[in-house]
Amino acid sequence: QVQLVEFGGNLVQTGGSLRLSCAASGIRGGIWDMGWYRQAPGEQRELVATITPAGRTDYLDSVKGRFTISRDNNKNAIYLQMDSLTPEDTAVYYCNVRTPSGGVFGSWGQGTQVTVSS
Description:
Layout: E1 3-7, E2 11-13, E3 18-25, E4 33-39, E5 46-51, E6 57-59, E7 67-72, E8 77-82, E9 91-98, E10 112-117
Parallel strand pairs: 2-10
Antiparallel strand pairs: 1-3, 3-8, 4-5, 4-9, 5-6, 7-8, 9-10
């Protein structure tokens, strides 16, 4: 019922930047925690960043200081600004609605591919 669509992935050089966008539908905006996740080839999906309706954020240790999550509650959208990218950031990036227990509420979308070359 909750649908999510990610945009903005691309191929970039080490040290480059990207801005990812996520549009959510089937939910009421402004009342849910949201998160960005990523899955590298052959690896498990991991949580990258979270944001509350009020804008409080949390980050995976390896991206602190480089990534910034934000949201627009009127648009049911979240964003991920990624700077100083490294090849270790290469992954498919997904967004989702967070439950109070730390799980996800929506079905996974197709994600958007981020590839960082050396």
